[in-house]
Amino acid sequence: MSTPEGLTPSDLKSLCDFLYRRTGMLFGESKRYYIDRRVAHRMEETGAGSFGAYLAFLRKDSLEAEHLINSFTVNETYFYREENQLRALSRSLLPEITARRQPGDKVRIWSAPCATGEEPYSIAIWLLENWAMVDAYNIEIVGSDIDTRVIAAALDGDYSERAVSRLPDAVRRLYFEGAPGSGWRIIRDIKESVTFTQVNLIDPESVAAQEPFDVIFCRNLFIYFDDASRLLAADNLFSSLTPGGFVCLGHTEFMLRTLSGFLCRRFEDAVVFQRPLLTGDDG
């Protein structure tokens, strides 16, 4: 079956509107080649004879919507990415949070989007290696993504040499084992320390289904959003934080400093954003 060489301007707008409503991500004419290839592949996979037929199918079939969204997400990452934020987590954020807790209390950390798991697994490894109080609290780490394929890959826990290249050799030997094809497989203890789930950060119901978090890593997602989607996602993150909790963004993302509600906090290792404590919670 043949597919069109490219979408018409009207087709392109219809598809981009669909993706925007579902994900908050903006696509347009500047990414036409990227879009055309992915749509052509999905039309071939579904047997759609025209874009109109495919769009009608897409709108009524949630599984196909999931497949299309998966094909548009970007999942480039590696272990210990933006290590300065991991240092801030163990040296500043968690000590401030646990100063208001008792030993044994729950501390929840969220990686969203988590891609193929490098970030939430990095958090687990970093805390074991660098935070002396890791065993004194009930640490829960959750990784989430809108892309179901990368969640499946995270659950498998198999990684390339490039993905682990920034890890110290001693850390790599301790927390990974050899995998088929000269890769690396994360050990079971670390794999079982992270829970993975699908969450759409611009869907309030999807976000509200999660328990509140003390620290959220949400890096390099807002760059794909317009202002309206950023505001919605930021509101959802704010609602997901415990009072006094922190959000860590990518190093180029500073939009939260302009939003009411969040405090901008400068620590030795990183600039992060905080949901203020409730009155009387700072003692």
Topology:
Blueprint: H1 9-23, H2 32-46, H3 51-60, H4 62-72, H5 83-98, E1 106-111, H6 118-130, E2 138-145, H7 148-156, E3 158-159, H8 169-175, E4 176-179, E5 183-186, H9 188-191, E6 194-198, H10 204-208, E7 213-218, H11 227-240, E8 241-249, E9 263-266, E10 271-274
Parallel strand pairs: 1-2, 1-7, 2-6, 7-8
Antiparallel strand pairs: 3-5, 4-5, 8-10, 9-10
Helix pairs in contact: 1-3, 2-4, 3-4
Written description of the protein model:
By secondary structure, this protein is an alpha/beta fold. The protein has 2 domains: 9-72, Chemotaxis Receptor Methyltransferase Cher, domain 1 (Orthogonal Bundle); 83-274, 3-Layer(aba) Sandwich (Rossmann fold), CATH 3.40.50.150. The chain has 11 helices and 10 strands. It has helices at 9-23, 32-46, 51-60, 62-72, 83-98, 118-130, 148-156, 169-175, 188-191, 204-208, 227-240; strands at residues 106-111, 138-145, 158-159, 176-179, 183-186, 194-198, 213-218, 241-249, 263-266, 271-274. The chain has a 7-stranded mixed β-sheet with strand order 6-2-1-7-8-10-9. Strand 4 (176-179) and strand 5 (183-186) form a beta hairpin. It is globular and about 60 Å long. The model has no long low-confidence stretch (mean pLDDT 87).
